[in-house]
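Dear support,

I submitted the protein below through the web form. The confirmation email said the job was done, but the results page showed an empty box. After a refresh the structure appeared. I'm attaching both so you can tell me whether what I see now is the final result or a partial one.
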Amino acid sequence: MIPERAFVGYLPIGFPDLETSIDAAVALVESGVDVLELGLPYSDPVMDGLAIQKATQQALANGFRVRDVFAAVEAIRGRVDVPAYVMTYWNPVLQYGVDRFARDLRDAGGAGLITPDITPDSAADWIAAGDAQELDRVFLAAPTSSEERIRSAVESSRGFVYAVSTMGITGARQDLDAAARTLVARLRAAGATGPDTLAAYVGIGISTPGQIAEVLEYADGAIVGSALVSALAEHGVTGLASTAAELAQGTIK
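What the results page shows now:
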């Protein structure tokens, strides 16, 4: 079930090691995160900023394997009851086997996939596999997306659609791009009307409680990544929990 006014927290699986990443994800939920976005480490993360790149590179250097994501999701879902999405570039899914990936994710208790580098018109195999396993599909829309691409993202997504707040890579920013508000309005017009149908969550560049509160004035959820990854890298799970609890204040009306 997709919550309203959602605080979505991103962390890569396997950073700084597999067990700690599981504890860190649980700590996020215990500190106020409503939805988990769990990154599958990838060798060429074209959309990710420096903090996430460093974390995923460490996970890979530690020996992360695709199968580890399923063990992590299962362990996390055994301890906390929130939707857990896997964010992954498409190549690892393709190499693992699309149907096999969908089945193993469902069996682990995952909610679905966020796929930043594949568009709906290229995702027929994943759409079919996701439907077969009743998994959500999250496609991205950007301020530069055409009306056709907006409609396609809304029609093909299930659960929520990921609204990219600004162009570029992930990373904390002082000011959110005003285009995010217009983008969400376009998604609403195309059918992303809320948690009961299809939610619109905004991500990239969100790093303060005030920014979360601002986003939640017009969107259904705010996604925070780099700020949480940096907190974990610099201060461990305890520091991460403190940062998440502070950020969660932005969801309070």
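Response: this is the final, complete result; the empty box was a page-load delay. The chain is about 45% helix and 15% strand.
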